[in-house]
Amino acid sequence: MTYCKECGHKLGFLEHTADGLCNGCRQRLAQEQAEKAHAAAIAPYTGAELPIITVTDAIMKKGETACCRTATVLKETKTVNLGYSGASHGVSIPLPIKVGGFPVRYRVGQSRGHIVKHDELLETSRGDLIISNQRLFLSPFAGHKPLSVPLSKIASFHVYENGLEVWQDSKERPYLFVLNATGSEICGLCLDKLLRA
Ligand SMILES: [Zn+2]
Q: Model confidence over 129-182: pLDDT tens digits?
C-alpha cells in the first residue's frame, strides 16, 4: 500500500507515480511553485530602482540600459479584405450585338455589392521584448521585423494577464505584445517607473 507523502492519504490505483503524491497534492504543489517563481521574478522590479540586465545580442544606443527582457509575439490590428458581398441588381441595356440570333444584354452595376473588410488581430513579428531607459524594443527572431518605440512616444499602455498593449503617439492602432503573466507584470512595472520618471 502506498500513501501520499504530503497528506498521507492512500494513493489510488491510478496515482501510483514516481513522485509519491496524490493528484490533489501534486496540483497544489505545482501551483505553489508557480506562485513562488512568479513572486521571485517580480521581486527585483518592486524596489526603488529598476534592475539593469545585460543585452549582448541587440544594438544598444549610447547610455541605454535595459531593465527587462521577455519572449513575445507581436500582434497588430490589420484590415483584411474579404471580397464582395451583396446581390447584383443591375440594369439591362440592350446592345446592338447579336450572338446566335439573340441580342446581348449588358448589365450595368453588376458588381454593385459591398466590399467586405474587417479588422483582424494578426501576428506581425516575434522575438524578445526588451524595455530600456530609452525605448521599448522588439529584438526579432531571424526573418521577423524589429520594432522600436521611444518611451517619449508612448501615449498609454495597458497591462493584461496575457500581454501588454502599447499606444504610440499619432498611431491609430495599438501594438499588442503577447506575454506570459510574469512577463506582463514585469513590463508593466518597468514602464510605470520609466514613464513616471
Ligand atoms: Zn496528497
A: 999 999 999 999 999 999 999 999 999 999 999 999 999 999 999 999 999 999
Distance CA 133, CA 44 (A): 16
Structural domains in the chain plus CATH codes: 1-46 (no CATH), 51-81+119-196 (2.30.29.30), 82-117 (no CATH)
Q: How far, in Å, is the centroid of ligand 1 from the Cα of 31?
A: 14
Nearest CA to 174 out of 158, 150, 196, 193 is that of: 158
Those residues whose beta carbon sits under 5 angstroms from the ion ligand 1 are 4, 6-7, 22, 25
Q: What is the pLDDT of residues 17-46, one digit of tens each?
A: 788 899 999 999 999 999 999 999 999 999
> How far, in Å, from the CA of 4 to the mean position of ligand 1?
5
123 C-alpha to center of ligand 1: Å?
42
Is residue 92 very low, low, confident or very high in pLDDT (cuts 50, 70, 90)? low
CA of 15 to the centre of ligand 1 (A): 10
DSSP-derived secondary structure letter, 133: S
In order, the DSSP letters of 95-130 are EEEEETTEEEEEEETTT-SEEEEEEEEEEEEEEEEE
